[in-house]
Amino acid sequence: MVAPELVERVIARALARGGDLGELYAEDRHGFSVTLDDGRVEDPRAGAERGASVRVVRGEASYFGHVDGTDEASLMKVADSVAQAVRGDERRPAALGAVRVAQGHPVTERPQGVAAARKAELLRECDERARTAGAEVAQVSVGYMEERRLVEVFNSDGLAAADDRTRVRLSAQVVARRNGASGPRVETGTDTRGGHAGFELLSGDPGAVAESAARKALTLLDAVDAPSGRLPVVVGNGFGGVLLHEAVGHGLEADAVQKRASVYAGKLGQQLAAPSVTAYDDGRRTGEWGSDGIDDEGTPTRRTTVIEDGCLTSYLYDLVRARADGVESTGNGRRQSFRHLPVPRMTNTYFAPGEATPEELIAGVQRGLYAVSFGGGQVEPATGDFVFGVSEGYLIEGGRVTAPVRGATLVGNGLEALRAVDGIAGDLRIATGYCGKAGQTVPAGVGQPHVRLAELTVGGTG
Q: What is the model's pTM?
């Protein structure tokens, strides 16, 4: 997208008044989305944009500007603007190396080449599947989105890297309604399928996504009040990984650690969980929603072991925080777009699979909660304290899953939750989510196998 000769001039101009690192980030983005609500296909949107940003890092400070377009005049103007904010002596950048194109994720069918009518038909299929799940299905909303981002990153150390990123996602939300003597009861179920892949991701029974959402909503119509107290909890795979992502993962991001705003600061090498517990952040995992070939600073993504045999082994770094700690970036410098600064962010974060089965974990609980997935929640990274709402949960009685429950919350602390893990199954699944931080939103894979916690505080209505 940007000629190497122009890149070198832009970075040199940005460093005219000094800096430890100069960077040019360029992006070409194309997207399409469409929704179906109450049987009507609505709001098809297609868009494209191209832009770039220039950053100069000096010490702990970052000087940043962005511009729509990648023409020479615009890039030189934003480089001048950034340079004016720096106070120091000119730094000469290293010569650029050859552009290193990241190893891409397989894309068999480019979504841009699929007719919009075919995508709309997919939504209608989902609507029909959800409504045939039960007469009490009252409302169905289905959404489809696709995005392709062509990214180039260059810096004054001579780095030149590029990545071609395609994502597809299908989501469904189903509302079920039942009229009773005490008034109407309304419940909601959701499900998604997505990945760093092409339209082929949806070739295998996409209607199952809507059917799953409908099943959840219909099941919750029979839910009883959730129990309360200190109880064993089995957390489901897939979306159950929100607990690890929020209660542990954000506290491992190096910006929070360096500000001493994380409960995990200063705990590298400490035993935080049982020896059976290992956890990863893996930005290279093939086809997953949070994966890329490089991060948004040009560092190749990788699998970082954050907990190994129960010991905390690594934080998650971008280039700036890695330099401050004298370590390598872990490939976690991510940004929403060229309009944003990169910051340390998770990619796909999950517990390593264990050897148990979900049935064995549940069989070991006399009375407890099976938390399949979570809704909203709050976490305080400085203390590790959290509160999560359980969007789909069930009672465990006598080692068996029995009635669905409503109104359950999990209240605890990240360190406490890690210590409480006493069983991990082998059924790893990673679900699709969006993670918000620093005013930015990026795709993040949330997942895990089934995990059992020996005891956690459950807030309920029963």
A: 0.95
